[in-house]
Amino acid sequence: MIGGGLARPFRVLGVQQLAIGGASKDALRYLWIELLGVEQTGTFRNEAENVDEDILSVGGVEIDLMQPIDPDRSPKVHVPPLNHIGLWVDDLQAAVDWLVARGVRFTPGGIRRGAAGHDVTFIHPKGNDIMKQGGEGVLIELVQAPPDVIAKLG
């Protein structure tokens, strides 16, 4: 049943980011920065997550251009090219607790600090035998919205 009048202890406030991966960021940078003129606002590198990324911003939405540090190691941040979508939520812990109680599968790692400095966690693209609900093929990042974003979008 879609919707079903479920009382959620959290709200999705808006799109926080889109993450786009490639074997090399060069072609992505050329398209997004040089041709489209989107402003680069930072960089992020994390060996544990196998990611080297450039952080761009347009219209209040972050666009992460990602390449793997080691293309043969997981996670493969360039497969698929549209790696994930990030959603602002007003209460990340409440969202995780509520969704887990309803059988939503999350990726390993739990809630942790993300590239932009906000707490994040990821809904796995696929459910499994224990946690049946995943992102229906899409990796979904839930991002704790800071107070100013909650005030603006909430």
Describe what you observe in this structure.
- The chain has one domain: Roll (2,3-Dihydroxybiphenyl 1,2-Dioxygenase, domain 1), CATH 3.10.180.
- A hairpin with a 4-residue loop joins β2 (39-46) and β3 (51-58).
- It is built from 3 helices and 8 strands; from the N terminus they run βαββββαβββα.
- Helices cover 18% and strands 35% of the residues.
- It is globular and about 45 Å long.
- The protein has helices at residues 25-35, 92-101, 147-153; strands at 12-21, 39-46, 51-58, 61-67, 82-89, 112-113, 119-123, 139-144.
- By secondary structure, the protein is an alpha+beta fold.
Please report the first level of CATH classification, the CATH class: Alpha Beta
> Strand share of the residues?
35-45%
**From the coordinates shown, what is the CATH architecture?**
Roll
Identify the overall geometry. Answer: globular
Low-confidence runs (pLDDT<50, min 5 residues)?
none
Task: Give the SSE map.
Layout: E1 12-21, H1 25-35, E2 39-46, E3 51-58, E4 61-67, E5 82-89, H2 92-101, E6 112-113, E7 119-123, E8 139-144, H3 147-153
Parallel strand pairs: 1-4, 5-8
Antiparallel strand pairs: 1-5, 2-3, 3-4, 6-7, 7-8
Short description:
The chain is an alpha+beta fold and 154 residues long. The chain contains three helices and eight strands, in the order βαββββαβββα.
